[in-house]
Structure formats: structure tokens, C-alpha cells
Write a structure and sequence with these properties.
Shape: globular
Largest sheet: 18 strands, mixed
CATH architecture of the largest domain: Roll
Radius of gyration: 18 Å
Strand content: 35-45%
């Protein structure tokens, strides 16, 4: 089975072209094996690039633990790059079907290869039942929860997948690795959640680290960065156009006046190879 390793701001996945490759029945098991950093290719998970009746291609993403996620912002940028660079859809505006719906991507090619992608991520979801969360408010803003005896204020937003955003004075391992795993599985998140820890630098800039549902800490999270920007605006700390500094690089986020969130960032192909199917 042919594969391609790609990353968006260090958020790396193994990509398989399901237009041409035959896939096994158990995709979750395949994801765990291929993404294993010691015995496999290594990555934050597996992303399939599939045919779609509604768009130029369909993205299916699987986390490191084999669970299927609804959406991956960094992943969809790489899917946009792949469909252009590999001739599936040779045009600078493409539509990609995701668990969030069909998203429109603007591609920025240079010398025949896409280097940067701007994604219309759609509108944030604020209704608790749709996020989902049991916390009150639409959206739940700065709601206190108990995390192993520690009171943590969390703002909850969905960008097609659930996010809990915590604003901190300093983004430390104590927050990310100490509090992140416990918040991921907190009872207020019926389907677990991605947890973002955000330090506001100015009204147009913030630093973020993320504990991703099903994968642990990753070097970037596109939907999480969008959710963090929205949370920062809701809490009066950020402007509608911001630069986010992540462990693996920077992303530009804009929450437009029409309600749509736009994310712009890099997409990089690292290498390709063959995965043994026997």
C-alpha cells in the first residue's frame, strides 16, 4: 500500500490515496500500526483521501489510538495540497468533504506545488448539545470545572469537533500533560474533547499548546487554533484577525464578520513509501 507522510505546522499524519489503494476492513487497526512512532511510519494518525460525490475529495481522519475523528484543520490543508500536487483536482480552489461538511480551500501553489492553504472552516458551534458538553451557556464561556481538586475555567467551542480552551499565564508541561489528559475525559465532555492551553500575547497574537483527543499532545491543531481564537474573542482578549504560535509553527486565523472562521497555514509533503500489506 502506497502512503505519503505530510504535516501542517508539525501536525503530522500518514496519508493514503483511497482513489487508488485497496484498504483493509479495520481502518482503526491500520491507523494504530502505521502511525506508531516506534514500530510504524510515525505520525499523529492516519488520513484517507477518498472519492466523494459532493466534492473534489473526501477526508477521513483517524487518531493515533485508532478512533475516527470528525475533523482535522492541519490535515485538510494537506489533503488540499495532495489533491493538487498529485493531479486529483488541479485547480486553486478545491472542495473537500469532511465530517464537518464540505469545506472550501484556497490553494497557493509555487513552481507547481502547493505551499500554503487557506481554509474556510465554517462557523463555530456554540450550542452545548451540539458541541457536545453538559456545561451551561451558548457558548459556555469561562465555566469553572473541577479537575483533580483544581478549579479550571474553560470556554467550550466546537469547530466540527469539541474543544475546551483554557487561558493561562504560561503554557507549561504541568498544564498540557498534567491537566490536559484529565480534561480530555472529564464528564462535562460526553465524547471527550481536545484541550487547548492559551497564553495571550497581545490582541493580535497568542501562544497555544494542545492535548488532542485520542492522540495526546500534538505540535499543532488547526481546529483547536480556530476554537482558541474564537474563545479569545468571546472573552474580549483578542481581535478578529490573529496570529497563533504553535509548537510546530504559526497559523493565521480570522473570524470574519459573516461568522465564518478562516485558517491559513503551511502544508508540507515529507516523503512517500510502501507499507507492507501482509
Amino acid at each position: 500500500m502506497k502512503f505519503t507522510k505530510m504535516h501542517g505546522a508539525g501536525n503530522d499524519y500518514v496519508y493514503v490515496n483511497a482513489f487508488t489503494e485497496k484498504l483493509p476492513a479495520d481502518i482503526g487497526d491500520l491507523a494504530r500500526k502505521m502511525a506508531d512512532r516506534h514500530y510504524g511510519i510515525g505520525g499523529d494518525g492516519l488520513i484517507l483521501i477518498c472519492p466523494s460525490e459532493r466534492a473534489d475529495a473526501r477526508m477521513r481522519m483517524f487518531n493515533l489510538d485508532g478512533s475516527e475523528g470528525e475533523m482535522c484543520g492541519n490535515g485538510v490543508r494537506c489533503v488540499g495540497k495532495y489533491v493538487y500536487d498529485h493531479g486529483i483536482a488541479k485547480k486553486e480552489t478545491v472542495a473537500i468533504e469532511t465530517g464537518r461538511g464540505v469545506l472550501t480551500l484556497q490553494l497557493f501553489p509555487k513552481n507547481g506545488k502547493v505551499e500554503k492553504v487557506r481554509v474556510n472552516m465554517g462557523q463555530p458551534i456554540f450550542e452545548p448539545a451540539q458541541i457536545p458538553t453538559t456545561l451551561a451557556g451558548s457558548p459556555p464561556v469561562k465555566q469553572p470545572i473541577d479537575v483533580v481538586g483544581r478549579t479550571v475555567e474553560v470556554t467550550v467551542v466546537s469547530m466540527g469537533n469539541p474543544h475546551g480552551v483554557v487561558f493561562v499565564d504560561d503554557v507549561t508541561d504541568d498544564w498540557v500533560h498534567g491537566i490536559g489528559p484529565k480534561m480530555e475525559v472529564h464528564p462535562v465532555f460526553p465524547r471527550k474533547a481536545n484541550i487547548e492551553f492559551v497564553k495571550v500575547i497581545s490582541r493580535t497574537e497568542f501562544q497555544m499548546r494542545v492535548w488532542e483527543r485520542g492522540s495526546g499532545e500534538t505540535w499543532a491543531c488547526g481546529t483547536g487554533t480556530c476554537a482558541s481564537a474564537v474563545a479569545g474573542i468571546l472573552t474580549g482578549q483578542l481581535d478578529r484577525k490573529v496570529l497563533a504560535h504553535l509548537k510546530g509553527g504559526d497559523l493565521e486565523i480570522e473570524w470574519a464578520e459573516n461568522g465564518d472562521v478562516f485558517m491559513t497555514g503551511p502544508a508540507v509533503e515529507v516523503f512517500s513509501g510502501d507499507w507492507p500489506t501482509q
